[in-house]
Design goal:
about 150 residues; alpha+beta; 5 strands; single chain; 5-stranded antiparallel sheet
Length: about 150
């Protein structure tokens, strides 16, 4: 049933994670120079941006989260599988922050005095995590409704 509220939640998750792919997650200041940290890597802020440290794992994880949410929408006939994929997607969203923290920790070891200023795009996975929880609840409610109707037959 594509017209259910969990479809809207999952579509918002897809939109926010695609936005996370392309928006800067944070700005870094280290060694008197400014760097932009986005999903593809850490690059200098200049006329000709130079990639200092690639973070393709973060890019791949973000893309997998958005693709998995999109695939979950079309599995509306298999509600238990939908719930399992949503739970897996929530674990991946938590892994996003773990990987982001790892990259900041590695960068802290390579450069001296790193100052991190966070951008709004870094909060998108938390919003997606909340929406994922709401989608799981609504898919579960649909499953209980279908099971109760099967009992009446």
């Amino acid at each position: 049933m594509l017209q259910r509220i969990q479809t809207v939640y999952l579509l918002i998750i897809v939109a926010l994670m695609v936005a996370t792919l392309f928006l800067p997650l944070s700005l870094l200041q280290a060694d008197g120079q400014f760097y932009s940290f986005d999903a593809t890597g850490i690059s200098t802020i200049a006329e000709q941006p130079e990639l200092v440290y690639p973070t393709w794992g973060l890019f791949a994880l973000t893309a997998i989260i958005s693709i998995l949410a999109l695939v979950t929408i079309f599995l509306f006939k298999k509600r238990i599988l939908q719930i399992r994929l949503c739970v897996f997607n929530a674990i991946l969203m938590l892994g996003f922050y773990g990987l982001f923290g790892f990259f900041v920790w590695v960068l802290n070891g390579k450069m001296e005095e790193v100052t991190l200023s966070v951008k709004i795009a870094l909060s998108f996975p938390v919003i997606c995590l909340i929406l994922d929880y709401l989608a799981i609840r609504n898919i579960g409610a649909d499953e209980t409704l279908v099971r109760s109707l099967d009992r009446l037959r």
